[in-house]
């Protein structure tokens, strides 16, 4: 009998082949050790860079007031929560943050989740099952897709930002399953494109067809609307139009965690049924204290959004003057479309050599042939940072043309 190969070795051999293939296709991902510094800076390998890759849109992640919140929370509550929210992990700080988030989003209640990824998994899994359908924008964040898959409902994807296509697909589903539940899920600000979903139109179609709309405000809260109340509020929509609102605390709010806001009944249902809520340890309470500080800052310091708007305008004007391949975005997410993964990676490396961290985004995060540089602006950048970046981009792209 032939000797069976050592299973771990055989597995390693298969995995190594897969990794090599990934590398050959320019899709290999590597981490680096990064130390965030104030002023949208980051230290990597002993060198300081201007960071154009973080989602810290309001420049709060390094704000001393958030650190003070953490420290005070730590003194009162310790480093760990010790249990899930339904056991003994739910602290007064968590509770206060939930109430503040409900008020901020104009909804009766909010429920904290450990991460946005877990919130999206939990929402879909708790609300729909085998007979139902989840309808999603083609460019939705991976966590929304994974939520639909975890729910076992039928996943139907509609064309990007296309309410008519959603309408047709909803109608087709309704015809087959008149009594089943239809859950429509969309990013508000699309994470890799920076454009905003047609929220009012989505809401109208959902209402007409008896479907339920959930909007993921991971990149909208803190950034869009007065006081940073989000793209849904900025579009004039409330709980009747968008009954399920999800937001994260690790991006514009510079902290960590996520939440769902909605009706009393919705939140009670999620507490009973969302497995990613029930079966996990509550985030440390001090994080809630830092998020509370961030929320207050977002309400009080509109200058951060004014500054962002100014930087966005300056970036776009300068990039247009150099004919850089801008995408249609008014948000701090300003991608440059490059197409091939190799090209995006080469440009990202060239910028890094000049002191700028700009992430290349490749498939499968974005569709094939749409690799890009994802440039993110924050209130902590200066006009000079932005002008310097555009100059470096233009030089590198000219050079790229010359050497082609
Ligand atoms: C980042 C992100 C998430 C996940 O949130 P985390 O708190 O980082 O897990 C969910 N949805 C969208 C659109 C995101 O960009």
From TrEMBL:
Pfam families: Aminotran_1_2 (PF00155)
GO terms of molecular function: 8-amino-7-oxononanoate synthase activity
EC nos: 2.3.1.47
Catalytic activity field: 6-carboxyhexanoyl-[ACP] + L-alanine + H(+) = (8S)-8-amino-7-oxononanoate + holo-[ACP] + CO2
Residues binding pyridoxal 5'-phosphate: 116-117, 191, 219, 248
Cofactors named for this entry: pyridoxal 5'-phosphate
Keyword field contains Transferase: yes
The UniProt record lists the keyword Metal-binding: no
N6-(pyridoxal phosphate)lysine: residues carrying this PTM: 251
Sequence ranges assigned to domain Aminotransferase class I/classII large in this UniProt record: 48-393
Keywords, ordered alphabetically: Acyltransferase, Biotin biosynthesis, Pyridoxal phosphate, Transferase
Record-listed substrate binding positions: 29, 141, 365
This protein's pathway: Cofactor biosynthesis; biotin biosynthesis
InterPro entries: Aminotrans_II_pyridoxalP_BS, Aminotransferase_I/II_large, AON_synthase_class-II, AONS_Archaea/Proteobacteria, AONS_Proteobacteria, PyrdxlP-dep_Trfase, PyrdxlP-dep_Trfase_major, PyrdxlP-dep_Trfase_small
Family the entry assigns: Belongs to the class-II pyridoxal-phosphate-dependent aminotransferase family. BioF subfamily.
Subunit structure: Homodimer.
NCBIfam families the UniProt entry points to: bioF
PANTHER family associated with the record: 8-AMINO-7-OXONONANOATE SYNTHASE (PTHR13693:SF100), CLASS II AMINOTRANSFERASE/8-AMINO-7-OXONONANOATE SYNTHASE (PTHR13693)
Role: Catalyzes the decarboxylative condensation of pimeloyl-[acyl-carrier protein] and L-alanine to produce 8-amino-7-oxononanoate (AON), [acyl-carrier protein], and carbon dioxide.
Protein name: 8-amino-7-oxononanoate synthase
Source organism (scientific name): Natronospira bacteriovora
């Amino acid at each position: 009998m032939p000797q069976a190969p050592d299973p771990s070795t055989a597995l390693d051999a298969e995995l190594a082949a897969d990794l090599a293939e990934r590398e050959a296709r320019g899709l290999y991902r590597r981490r680096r050790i990064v130390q965030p510094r104030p002023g949208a800076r980051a230290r990597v390998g002993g060198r300081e860079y201007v960071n154009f890759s973080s989602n810290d849109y309001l420049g709060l992640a390094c704000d001393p007031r958030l650190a003070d919140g953490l420290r005070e929370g730590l003194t009162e509550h310790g480093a760990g929560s010790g249990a899930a929210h339904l056991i003994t992990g739910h602290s007064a700080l968590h509770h206060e943050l939930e109430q503040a988030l409900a008020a901020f989003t104009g909804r009766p209640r909010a429920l904290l989740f450990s991460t946005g990824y877990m919130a999206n998994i939990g929402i879909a899994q708790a609300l729909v099952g085998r007979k139902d359908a989840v309808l999603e924008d083609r460019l939705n964040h991976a966590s929304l897709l994974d939520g639909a898959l975890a729910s076992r409902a039928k996943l139907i994807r509609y064309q990007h930002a296309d309410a008519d296509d959603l309408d047709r697909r909803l109608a087709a589903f309704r015809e087959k399953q008149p009594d089943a539940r239809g859950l429509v899920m969309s990013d508000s600000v699309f994470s890799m494109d920076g454009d905003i979903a047609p929220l009012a139109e989505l809401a109208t179609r959902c209402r007409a067809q008896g479907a339920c709309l959930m909007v993921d405000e991971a990149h909208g809260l803190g950034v869009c609307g007065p006081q940073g109340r989000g793209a849904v509020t900025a579009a004039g929509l409330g709980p009747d139009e968008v009954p399920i609102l999800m937001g994260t605390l690790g991006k514009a709010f510079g902290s960590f965690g996520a939440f769902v806001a909605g009706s009393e009944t919705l939140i009670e249902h999620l507490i009973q049924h969302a497995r990613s809520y029930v079966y996990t340890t509550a985030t440390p309470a001090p994080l809630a204290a830092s998020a509370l500080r961030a929320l207050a800052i977002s309400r009080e310091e509109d200058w951060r959004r004014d500054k962002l708007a100014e930087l966005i305008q300056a970036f776009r004007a300068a990039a247009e003057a150099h004919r850089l391949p801008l995408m249609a975005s008014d948000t701090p997410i300003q991608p440059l479309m490059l197409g091939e993964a190799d090209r995006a990676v080469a440009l990202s490396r060239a910028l890094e050599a000049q002191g700028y961290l700009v992430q290349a985004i490749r498939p499968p995060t974005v569709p094939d042939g749409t690799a890009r540089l994802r440039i993110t602006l924050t209130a902590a950048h200066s006009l000079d940072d932005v002008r310097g970046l555009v100059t470096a981009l233009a030089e590198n792209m000219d050079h790229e043309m010359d050497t082609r």
